[in-house]
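Ops channel
N.P.: pipeline sanity check, posting one input/output pair.
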């Protein structure tokens, strides 16, 4: 039970507290999947704990951004100006769902996306739907990969490179579209 509680706490803090983006989300999912594959954890309990922590953490972060985030934007701030808030709201109105879902696969971004969605006043129901979908895909993908591949020595020894590669591949379509918009 302590392992499940610790995993819940780490994933909740990484996704729910804007000051905790450095916690090991992806690698923790893979490792817990590998532990389930070796019989030390229950696969379904692991997936349920992680997905629940991610969804609850996202919602906390969203509401912190929604209730307090706009106070950061003012005319005296060098980096957080009102026009940035307006652009953020417009961006989340058009691309918020994709951002929330795909951000789940990109370290650091997954911590900030719910906060910014709250600041951008993305409708909570829409946010929650994409947050749940992203959390289920993220958990399902990485825990399952860990379950089936976590005990293969080549993969276990190069885990960070593999996770970085997955993050780049997941973020690539979004980045390409963003670059095309800036060029045209």
């Amino acid at each position: 039970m302590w392992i499940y509680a610790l995993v819940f706490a780490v994933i909740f803090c990484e996704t729910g507290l804007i000051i905790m983006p450095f916690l090991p989300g992806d690698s923790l999912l893979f490792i817990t999947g590998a532990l389930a594959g070796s019989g030390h954890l229950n696969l379904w309990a692991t997936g349920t704990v992680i997905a629940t922590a991610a969804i609850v953490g996202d919602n906390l972060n969203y509401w912190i951004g929604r209730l307090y985030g706009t106070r950061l934007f003012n005319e005296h701030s060098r980096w957080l100006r009102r026009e940035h808030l307006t652009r953020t709201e417009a961006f989340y109105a058009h691309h918020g769902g994709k951002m929330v879902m795909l951000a789940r696969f990109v370290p650091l971004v997954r911590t900030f996306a719910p906060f910014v969605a709250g600041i951008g006043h993305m409708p909570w129901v829409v946010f929650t739907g994409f947050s749940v979908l992203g959390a289920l895909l993220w958990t399902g993908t990485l825990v399952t990969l860990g379950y089936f591949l976590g005990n293969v020595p080549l993969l276990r020894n190069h885990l960070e490179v593999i996770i970085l590669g997955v993050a780049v591949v997941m973020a690539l379509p979004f980045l390409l579209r963003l670059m095309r918009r800036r060029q045209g």
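N.P.: looks fine end to end. The radius of gyration is 17 Å.
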